[in-house]
Amino acid sequence: MATIRPFRAVRPAADKAENVIALPYDVMNRQEAAEMAEGKPYSFLHISRAEIDLSFLEDPYSKAVYQKGRENFDRMQEEGVYLQDENPCLYIYRQEMNGRYQTGIVGCFSIDEYENNIIRKHELTRLEKEVDRISHFDACSANTEPVFLTYRRNSHIDQMIADFISGKQPVYDFYSKDGIGHSLWVLDDDMLIERVCREFSRIDRLYIADGHHRSASACEVGKKRRSENPDYDGTEEFNYFMAVIFPDSDLKIYDYNRVVKDLNGFTKEELLDEISKAGFIVTCQGERPYRPEKTHEFSIYLDGNWYKMETRPELVPENVIGALDVSILQDNVLGPILGIGDPRTDSRIDFVGGIRGLEELSRRADSDMKLAFAVYPVTMEELMNIADCGEIMPPKSTWFEPKLGSGLFIHKI
Fold first, then answer.
1. Of the candidates 197, 287, 327, 364, which lies 20 to 30 Å from 247 by C-alpha distance?
2. pLDDT of residue 284
3. How many helices and strands in the chain, by DSSP H and E?
4. Which runs of consecutive H residues, i.e. helices, occur in 153-258?
5. Could you give the CA distance from residue 307 to residue 273 in angstroms, rounded to a whole number?
6. Residues in CB range of 201: below 8 A, 6 or more apart
7. Whole-number Å distance between alpha carbons of 407 and 7
8. Backbone φ/ψ region at 175: left (φ over 0), alpha (ψ -120 to 50), beta
């Protein structure tokens, strides 16, 4: 059964939160991070992407980078930018984007439950990305950014959250520069914390929505601390990692689309003919952007026109992974026709989050790429079913928005 545990968060002082908050560390490159943090000495990017303060270093994974992140974290605590709560609490975190709200609980979760698959995964991790966050968490002695978890909605938890925040002023309540609203309430009522924890103990499985590398890295750091402290009793903070957990019905998965650099030697007419021969019904929609309207329907942008690409039923396999639209596209078009064998490593393909709109696809196809495919988004139920089956989704299958704000809470280990 699932465990959620209160903790003493290290949080920005109320008047500093807007100057601290940043996007997650992995949604930008080094130059973008430096530009975002320019003129902002308290930006969390000075902790999560400390290479921006060491411009003379070419290697962003140098030991000096992680030491600098720890140095910046310590400095911000000394200067009163960050303060630590006196008692263990849970935290209610609400985000708003374009009139849609998602409200979750910030708490700590067991590395053993991660290892034992009570906390379920749906993506593979890359070793070099794990090592990066292991080095960062270990140097800072903290989980600096939360994992993004979800669970099947529980009406009792909903009601407890709603009752608690009703009429209460949040400690943070602002909009970041990207237009996302961030509100945080400190749940410091011991009796209510106990009730929330008890309700979570009745839930038999949780799911990683986003943050597979952060969760894997936090788990490895926890195991490292165990080996360094052989007399540990399981209550130490390093046995837990920080996450925000939202009910599944609050979350929205956007499409994760593909742009391809060339036509693999085909002319436009030949390519469309090959796609039709592969088992798709292709119809031209003209110059107006066309968005897929249902599962197993795609759209193509090529040479100024949009096309609807419908999948014939015989192309849809019975297994849950093969039936995903990203798999159908890869297995029937990107691989055999366009010659993209491994989309994780092939330089001829790139990926565009659906939040950027269809216009970004046509822009890329008309500039540095050649054609684009828009995919109907995966559902939360598909994601959880795949995790329940112990399967792994293909790379670049899901894009969640809004992204969690980074820097609003830190868990010392």
1. 327
2. 98
3. 13, 20
4. 155-165, 190-200, 212-228
5. 12
6. 1, 2, 3
7. 16
8. beta
- Interval 272-296 mean pLDDT: 97
Q: Are 377 and 254 in contact (CB under 8 A)?
A: yes
Provide the 10 A C-beta neighbour count for residue 230: 6
Longest dimension (CA), the chain: 69
Cα separation, 323 vs 332, whole angstroms: 12
Written as six digits, the tokens of 144 are: 């600096």
Return the structure tokens found at 252. Answer: 């929205």
**What does the pLDDT read at residue 297?**
98
Q: What is the pLDDT of residue 126?
A: 85
Percent share of the chain, pLDDT over 90: 95
CA–CA dist 3, 140 (Å, integer) = 25
d(CA 372, CA 302): 7
Structure tokens at 192: 């209510």
CA pair distance 64, 57, nearest whole angstrom? 9
Of 260, 308, 301, nearest to 280 (Cα)?
308
Average pLDDT of the chain, as a whole number:
96
Percent of the chain scoring above 70 in pLDDT:
100
CA atoms within 13 A on the CB side of 308: 15
- CA gap 177, 175 in Å, rounded: 7
Q: Alpha-carbon distance 219 to 135, whole Å?
A: 12
pLDDT at 265: 97
For 303-320, what is each residue's pLDDT tens digit? 999 999 999 999 999 999
Contact 368, 97 (CB under 8 A): no
Which of 184, 181, 183, 185 is CA-nearest to residue 96?
A: 181
What crossing angle do the helices spanning 63-78 and 127-140 adopt, rounded to 10°?
Answer: 40
Helix (H) or strand (E) holding 174: strand 172-175
Confidence bin at 205 (pLDDT 50/70/90): very high
Phi, psi of 399 (to 5 degrees): -135, 110
For residue 1, what pLDDT is reported?
A: 82
Cβ atoms 253, 400 nearer than 8 A: yes
Q: Distance between CA 369 and CA 352 in Å, rounded?
A: 12
Q: Closest Cα to residue 211, out of 406, 413, 8?
A: 406
